[in-house]
Amino acid sequence: MNNLEKLGKLSETIGKIYFRLLLIVLIIGVIAIQMSKVENNEGIDKIAIIVGSIVGFGISYFILRLLFRPVYDLNSTINQRIYNQITNTEFKKKWWLSLICSTIVALLPVIPTFGISILIMIPQFILLTKSRTYE
Prior knowledge:
Layout (H helix, E strand, L loop, with lengths): L1 H38 L4 H29 L1 H9 L5 H20 L2 H22 L4
């Protein structure tokens, strides 16, 4: 049990760090792209570009948050199941959702850094496999 708890905390930490790194890359990318557009336009176009950037970043943040929450919340879901705070059916649903989201997150940066993303997600996949026994 102790190893599962350590693995869960490691997976949660890695998931949160990975989420924050993607947000930083997203912010830098949005700012860089939009700064090049602002220089070439005048007046109302600059305002539209800035508002569009904010809305685009907000939507991207919301999507990333929805994708990553099941990934780094699996540890708390396992603990809830151990202490019978959630039913077996709820645990199965959350477990499958976490598996699907983990797979998507692992494949997210496929083109530039396939190997690194798989290495980062190894603790999550091990945690998913070991937590399957709590069904």
